[in-house]
Structure formats: C-alpha cells, structure tokens
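debug: dumping io for the single-chain case to check the tokenizer round-trip. Nothing else runs in this session.
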Amino acid sequence: MYARKIQTAARLAVVMLFAASAVFAQMGRTWPSEKKTVPDPVTGLSLTFLTSTDGGYSQSKIYQTHRQWTSDGKWLIFRGVRETGPQAMAVNEETGQIVQVTESGFMGMLCAGNRTMKLYVMSGGGGGGARGPSPATAAEAPRGGGRGAGGPRQILEIDLAKLFADVAARSVKPAANYQRICGTIPASLPADGNMGLDANDDFMYFRVGGPETAQLSEGQTLQKAFGPRGMGAGPSGLRSMNLKTGEIKFIVNVGFQIGHVQTNPWNPGEIVFAWETGGKAPQRTWTVMADGSGLRPLYPEAPYEWITHEAVIGKDEVVFAMCENGRLIPGGGPEPNYGTAGTWEHPTGVGVINLRTRQMRIAGQVPLWSGGRSDWHVAGSSDGRWAASDDFKYEVWLYDRHNGETIMLAGPQNVGADHIHPTFNAEGTKIEIQSALISKDGRSLNICVVPVPKSLLNRTYSLKLTD
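debug: decoded output
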C-alpha cells in the first residue's frame, strides 16, 4: 500500500511537472516591467533599459538589418532566454510589460510586419521549435545549415494584435488561436531561418542550400572558401514563399555562401544579401529582385576594402561599414590572411550607397582619438538625416549627414556577449541597442533605447553665409 502511494505521488508529480512546463512555455506569458533609466557614464544621456536581467536570463535584439519595433511603434521584439527557454519576446516601450510571443521557439531571424501587427518566424517541421543560432550566427552557418538542417521547415505567422489584446484582457488562449502555418519548406531545400519579409508583408525571401542550388544562375561561378575561417564557399540560393498560399518560387542560385538576407521595406520585391565569409569577402554586398532579375554587386569593392554589415535604411539607400583591420597587427599592418584589405592606409567609415544612382558617400567615421578605431555595425534613419555606428569599444556614434558632424551618444559599454548592433526607429528619433552596461557579470545583454537628443532633432540647416 505504501509503495502504491509513493508510485501514485510520483505519477502526480510528473503530471504536475508537465502541466507546469506547459504553462511556462505558453505564448502570452508575461513578466512585469524591468524598465530602468540609466545615465550614460560618459555622455550623461539617459539610456532606457527595457530589460535588466543577469545570469540565467539573457536577451538580444533582432539583427540590425531588420525591423525592431512592431508596426504600431509600441512594442520592441527581441530574443529572450528565460524559464521558457529561447523564445521571441515583446516589450512595451511605455509600460515595460514583457510578453512571450512564440510557443515553441524559432530559428534564425525574427521578422516583424512592416504594415501589419504580425510576426513571422521559421520553425522545425510540424511547428516544432528549433532553438536555432543567433541571427548573426545563423547567417554565418555552413550552407544548408542550421540545427537539424535535414528536416522540413515551416514559416509561421503570429497575430500580435490579437495576442496583446488577450494579454491585456487576461484571457490568453492556446497558441493555435494566434498562430498560422504559412507554408512548409521541404527537406530538399535546407533552410536555417535566414530570411527577410517583403515590404508588403506578403512574401518571405529565405536562404537555402542543398543539391537544388547546384545549377548556378547566369554569370555566377562556383567559389571556394575564403579567409582564415574557411567560409564562403558555394553554392547557395534564395527562394520566396507566398505567405498566403505557401507557394515557393526560385529566385537565384549563386556560387558563394549567402549571409544576411534582408529586404527593402519601401520597395516591394527588392532584396539585399551578403557573401558571408566570417570576415572580409571578395565581394560582400549584393542585390537582386524577387523575380531573379537585377542580380549584381551592390557596392563593388576593391581588394583593399573591408566592407561589412550592410543595412537598408531608406527607399533608395543602403548603409555599410568600411572597416580597418590593422588594429590587430602591431604598427597597423595588414591582416596576413586578407592581404591589403582593411589596413589603416585606405578610407574607412560609414558608407551610404544609393540603389538607383549607385553613388556612394561617406557619412562619417569613428574619430582617431577613440579607442574604438573602426565602425563595425551601422544604421541610418529613413529620412536621410542621420547615420549611426558602433565600434570595437562598444560606443554609439551619431553622424549628422547634413553637416558631417560626429557625435558620441553613449560611451564604452561593457564588452558583452555580442556587439551592440544599433538600429533606428521608423521616425529616426531613437536607436535600439543591446548592452551589457548594467549587467553584473559584464556580459549579459539587455535591450536598451538610446534617444537622439531633442537639441539635435530640432536642428535647422542653412547655406547662408555671413561676414
């Protein structure tokens, strides 16, 4: 009898454990506000931390190539690791409330709707959650890559408006009430979540590997691995999915490893992507239209240039970093594996290229006196007023594109688990970063919003000269 009681208690404990796990993993679970306002220790500018956790919790922003705020501008989407494991989260910028917005994880990139309150994620076949690598890691994974690359993948649509309304009403329902399967990517097209949402929220463009990429598009040749990390070899390809019907179409196959895939949020059907080597590439930036036309290098780089971390910032503009790598070599000489690329002897800074005229302008560069030395991740406001960058001291720089002024917004952050990856909001009035500034361990990242000071936003410009 006593043994039976123990067995019964054990079974009940297991049932309760599974029930508790289901609750903890539930889409719509909330956490109270962790919002903190902290003065930057160097500039004094007020930094708003929307998360403020340490240790077992961690969070990181969506990669700077993609939309961070929901279409209503009220919520920031981010990647969170909490009791529920790796999930997509949303934090309300005003109230600080945090809401879990996926049920069973995701892989690769999070794609917030441009015109709708929807979120699109890639999952393992059957809606299961592949707890994939970070956006940067996903983009640099071997072709055909991603965890469990052999299986089918699904693209899921999550109705954030409906979910947030039910959270507010305290009437959250099972995930099926908010989640829809848009379509399935077959195992013959290995995909890892490296994807971008079209401007009209009706197509997803994603990277694939596998045997179906072997037939290269016109003008492409098969490339070998490049640089010390042994990455960049082809082939790989891009495909589209109609998010209403699930239909998959061919876009292009290229002879190299595709990295970050992003779209032009102002121009439907326009894609920007990278040749990913984990460092300098022979030709980093590329663009193509969704029908496969117009495949070309975006910024044709010279062998001595180190181009990286491109991001579409306006209807006609893409910003990118022109880096130097001499910092790694005593005396500033070239990095041996890349020849003359990225030395101190050539121009560096934040470059902006026009997709239509193909004209490139340098918006600014990290000052020589800064220990950060080189721009690394870059951003820009869609109104053409501002560019921004981080550097190797985890500083945040703002560049006035009208007069060329360089302004430090935030001083060196702690050297966290990743770079800070700045991204502007739609209005160009603030910048989201991921920062370890307030972390006790100096590494755990938190979601932080850096304002563009009103004194700068209120600037007017005149070409009139006076004696």
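debug: round-trip ok. The longest strand covers residues 233-242.
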